[in-house]
C-alpha cells in the first residue's frame, strides 16, 4: 500500500553536512510523477489476515465482488496546497518542543515533502538513541537489498543416516507449526512434514537434526537492557524458530492487544522447532528430541532409489518480504526486525549476526545516498541503547522511500500506524490537545526507558504533506504518558496548522 509520493530534496546544505550531496541528486525531478503514481488515498493498515495473505484459498469472483472498498484513512497529498513557512512551523513548534515531559535533549526535523525544504530543525543532525524508530531504517534496507517479493525458505533435507531428516532454518521468524500459528498465512511445518513423508517414500523417519547455522554470533545483542530476553518483547535470535519464538502462540494471539504484544518466549527457538517437527513426522520419545547439526552438502545423484544425504525433501516459504515489513512496522515486532537485518547481511555477503546485519544496513543505506555519518546501528530492532540515528536522516529516509526513484521502497509505508486508529498509535491522539493528529499522522514510534521517539508523515490543515522526526533520549523517569502526549502535541500542531 504505497501511500505517498515524495519530492525533490532541499537545496544543497552547508559543507559540514557530509554525505548529503548524493541524496540531493537522487531526489531531484520526481515529484509530479511520484504523486501521480502512488494513488490518492491510504487504507487502514493492521494485523489482519487480509494484509498478510497467502494462507487461504483464493476467493471466488462472486466473493471478491461482494467485498466493500476499504475506507480511506489519509487523503492523498495535494501538490498545490499552500506551503508552510519555516517561520510558521517554528512558531507552532517551539513552545511544544520545550515541554518538560520531553526532557533536556529533544532533537527534531520537519521537512516539506513536495519541495524537500527543511522547515524546522533543532539538533536535527545529531545522532540520537532512536529505539524502535530504527525499524524504519531496517525496513528500507531489507526492501532495497532483497526486494518486496522475496520469500524466506525453510527446507528439509536428507541426513547422513537412513531416515534422518535435517531441518534447515532460513531465518523465517513467522514459521508456524500448523494452522493455529501466531502470524496468519505463515509457512507451516505440518505442510513441510507432509512433503518429507512423500519424498521419503517407504523410508520411515528416524530422527530430526536442526541446522540453524545460517545465523552466527550471539543470540542477544549486548546493548539490550537486561530484561529484554525475559520481558516478552525480545527473544533469542536463531535461524529457525516458530511463531517468533512464542511459547504459546494461540494465547499470545488472543491476548496481543491487552499485553501490548508481549509474550513468553522459548529459550532455544531452533531446538523447539525441531522437536515440533519431529512430532509432526510421527516421532516420539527420545527420537523426538531434535539435535543440533549441519545439513550434508547437496548430492549430485541419488543412490539405490533412496534420497542421498543432502537431497531436498521439502521446502516451504514465508510470506513475501513486504508483508513481513508491514508486520514489523505496524506491530513493532522486534524479532522480525532482527531477522530482517540478517537478511540484509545475507544479501550483502556479510555474516548473519547482529554486527553483520547492522554493518550491512549501514552499507545499503549509504548506497542509497543517505548520510552514513548520521546513523550507527548495533541491531535491527532498536532495542539496543547503542543505536544512533539523527532526525534529519529519518526525514531524508522517508522522502527517499516515497519519491518514486526506488519503487521497491514505497512498501515501507504500508505498515505505518495511523494516529488514533491502528498499530502502536491506536490508543493515541485521543485527548483534546492532540485530536488534530488523529487520522492524519502516520508514524513509527520508539520507546525505551528514558527514550521516546516518533517519525513519519502528516498532512497539514491546508493539505500539505510533511515528514517529521522527533527523538528524545533523556526523558524524565515515570513520565511515559506525559512524554508521549508531548510528542503527539508536536505532530498534532503540524496537522492542525497551515504554518504560514
| Overall pLDDT | 86
The dominant shape is elongated
Radius of gyration: 24 Å
Helical/strand content category? alpha+beta
H-E string: HHEHHEHEEHEEHEHHEEHHHEEHEEEH
Secondary structure: number of strands: 14
Strands ordered across the widest β-sheet: 4-3-14-13-12
Low-confidence sequence ranges? 1-67
Query: Could you tell me how far the N terminus lies from the C terminus, measured between alpha carbons in angstroms?
Result: 31 Å
Helix fraction by DSSP (H/I, runs of at least 4)? 25-40%
- The tally of helices reads 14
Main β-sheet description:
5 strands, antiparallel
Beta-strand residue fraction: 5-15%
Summary tags:
single chain, 500 residues, disordered N terminus
Description:
The protein has 500 residues and is of the alpha+beta class. The protein is built from 14 helices and 14 strands. The chain has helices at 20-27, 31-37, 49-52, 61-66, 86-97, 134-146, 189-200, 249-254, 269-280, 321-331, 334-347, 354-367, 391-402, 480-496; strands at residues 41-43, 72-75, 106-112, 118-122, 153-158, 164-168, 207-211, 291-292, 312-317, 375-376, 388-389, 441-448, 451-459, 465-472. The strands form 4 sheets. It has a 5-stranded antiparallel sheet with strand order 4-3-14-13-12, with helices on both faces. It is elongated and about 80 Å long. The chain starts with 19 loop residues before the first helix and ends with a helix. Residues 1-67 have low confidence and may be disordered.
Amino acid at each position: 500500500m504505497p501511500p505517498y509520493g515524495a519530492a525533490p530534496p532541499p537545496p544543497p546544505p552547508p559543507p559540514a553536512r557530509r554525505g548529503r550531496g548524493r541524496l540531493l541528486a537522487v531526489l531531484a525531478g520526481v515529484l509530479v510523477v511520484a504523486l501521480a503514481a502512488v494513488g490518492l488515498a491510504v487504507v487502514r493498515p493492521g494485523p489482519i489476515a487480509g494484509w498478510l495473505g497467502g494462507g487461504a484459498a483464493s476467493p471466488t469472483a462472486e466473493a471478491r465482488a461482494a467485498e466493500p472498498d476499504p475506507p480511506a484513512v489519509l487523503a492523498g497529498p495535494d501538490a498545490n496546497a499552500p506551503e508552510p513557512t519555516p517561520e510558521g512551523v517554528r512558531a507552532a513548534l517551539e513552545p511544544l518542543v520545550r515541554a518538560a515531559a520531553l526532557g533536556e535533549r529533544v532533537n527534531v526535523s520537519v521537512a516539506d515533502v513536495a519541495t524537500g525544504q527543511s522547515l524546522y530543525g533543532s539538533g536535527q543532525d545529531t545522532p540520537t538513541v532512536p529505539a524502535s524508530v530504527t525499524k524504519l531504517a531496517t525496513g528500507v534496507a531489507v526492501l532495497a537489498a532483497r526486494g518486496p517479493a522475496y520469500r524466506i525458505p525453510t527446507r528439509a533435507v536428507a541426513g547422513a543416516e537412513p531416515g534422518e531428516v535435517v531441518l534447515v532454518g532460513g531465518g523465517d521468524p513467522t514459521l508456524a507449526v500448523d494452522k493455529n500459528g501466531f502470524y496468519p498465512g505463515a509457512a507451516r511445518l505440518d505442510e513441510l512434514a507432509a512433503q518429507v513423508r512423500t519424498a521419503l517414500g517407504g523410508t520411515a523417519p528416524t530422527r530430526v537434526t536442526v541446522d540453524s547455522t545460517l545465523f552466527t554470533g550471539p543470540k542477544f545483542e549486548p546493548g539490550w537492557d537486561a530484561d529484554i530476553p525475559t520481558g516478552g518483547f525480545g527473544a533469542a535470535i536463531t535461524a529457525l524458530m516458530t511463531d517468533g519464538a512464542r511459547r504459546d502462540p494461540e494465547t499470545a494471539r488472543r491476548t496481543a492487544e491487552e499485553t501490548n504484544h508481549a509474550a513468553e518466549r522459548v529459550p532455544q527457538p531452533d531446538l523447539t522447532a525441531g522437536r515440533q517437527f519431529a512430532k509432526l513426522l510421527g516421532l516420539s520419545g527420545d527420537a523426538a528430541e531434535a539435535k543440533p547439526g549441519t545439513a550434508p552438502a547437496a548430492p549430485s545423484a541419488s543412490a539405490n532409489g533412496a534420497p542421498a544425504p543432502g537431497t531436498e525433501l521439502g521446502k516451504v516459504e514465508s510470506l513475501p518480504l513486504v508483508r513481513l515489513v508491514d508486520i514489523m512496522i505496524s506491530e513493532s515486532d522486534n524479532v522480525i526486525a532482527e531477522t530482517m537485518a540478517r537478511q540484509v547481511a545475507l544479501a550483502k555477503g556479510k555474516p548473519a549476526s547482529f554486527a553483520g546485519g547492522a554493518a550491512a544496513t549501514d552499507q545499503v543505506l549509504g548506497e542509497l545516498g543517505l548520510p552514513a555519518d548520521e546513523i550507527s546501528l548495533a541491531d535491527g530492532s532498536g532495542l539496543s541503547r547503542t543505536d544512533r540515528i539523527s532526525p534529519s536522516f529519518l526525514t531524508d529516509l522517508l522522502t527517499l522511500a516515497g519519491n518514486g526513484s526506488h519503487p521497491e521502497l514505497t512498501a515501507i509505508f504500508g505498515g505505518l500506524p495511523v494516529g488514533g486508529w491502528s498499530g502502536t498509535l491506536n490508543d493515541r491522539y485521543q485527548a483534546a490537545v492532540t485530536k488534530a493528529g488523529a487520522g492524519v499522522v502516520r508514524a513509527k514510534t520508539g520507546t525505551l526507558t528514558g527514550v521516546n521517539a516518533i517519525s513519519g508523515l502528516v498532512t497539514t490543515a491546508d493539505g500539505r504533506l510533511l515528514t517529521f522526526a522527533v527523538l528524545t533520549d533523556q526523558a524524565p523517569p515515570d513520565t511515559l504518558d506525559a512524554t508521549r502526549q508531548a510528542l503527539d502535541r508536536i505532530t498534532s500542531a503540524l496537522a492542525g496548522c497551515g504554518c504560514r
